[in-house]
Specification:
The protein has 205 residues and is an all-alpha fold. It has 10 helices and no strands.
Length: 205
């Protein structure tokens, strides 16, 4: 499994990493930890340049977040409600998650876009209220890029640090990767099944 994943990333190259990082921020089940952790192994093996990977992955993260920012910028909150009510189950996107991100953004301002890059639940969702609030696209891009640069760098360094262990314990590493992927899919299925429509959240308030 480990060699298969590393082979796929090696063949996909930097463009593949860029696309995967966009999808990771748009479609929940794709884990950046697996993508960049494995890419970090390729860096340690000399098959990828660390700095190039770092910049390309962060650019992909920014592009994925700009998608959500653009939706927030284009839509009103009422339109967003309708979209979440229709498609939220498939995106496992809950209305109360949006309102939490919106309230945090309103309370702390633009800087929260940078800080929430380190939150696994709200780092992408905060892009919507940022767009709704008409936050400057340049400030949004800067804070998202800088926060993502730090987070992605840590994931790549983690992959590099574990490269030796992965080579030594390849079978165990393969099982670990499978476990992470299965956990990601299981979380997605759970959130899909337990998803609530917008009206259900409003009734609880």
């Amino acid at each position: 499994m480990t060699e298969f994943l590393l082979g796929l990333l090696d063949k996909g190259g930097y463009l593949g990493i860029f696309v995967l990082m966009i999808l990771e921020n748009v479609f929940p089940p794709i884990p950046s930890e697996v993508i960049l952790g494995a890419a970090g192994v390729l860096v340690e093996q000399g098959k990828m340049n660390g700095v190039t990977l770092w910049i390309v992955a962060t650019a992909g993260t920014l592009a994925g977040n700009l998608f959500w920012y653009w939706l927030g910028y284009r839509w009103s909150e009422e339109t967003l409600k309708k979209v979440i009510d229709r498609w939220g189950r498939w995106l496992t996107f809950e209305w109360d998650e949006f309102t939490k991100a919106r309230d945090i953004f309103r309370r702390y301002g633009d800087w929260i876009v940078f800080l929430l890059r380190f939150s696994p639940l709200l780092r992408t969702i905060v892009s919507l209220p940022a767009g709704l609030a008409r936050m400057s696209v340049w400030r949004f891009s800067m804070f998202t890029f800088l926060g993502s640069l730090i987070w992605n760098g840590l994931l790549i360094l983690g992959g590099q640090a574990l490269a030796g262990l992965i080579d030594e314990y390849e079978t165990l590493a393969g099982y670990a990767i499978i476990a992470v992927v299965v956990a990601g899919v299981a979380i997605y299925v759970y959130r899909f099944v337990t998803w609530k429509p917008v009206k259900a959240h409003e009734a609880e308030e």
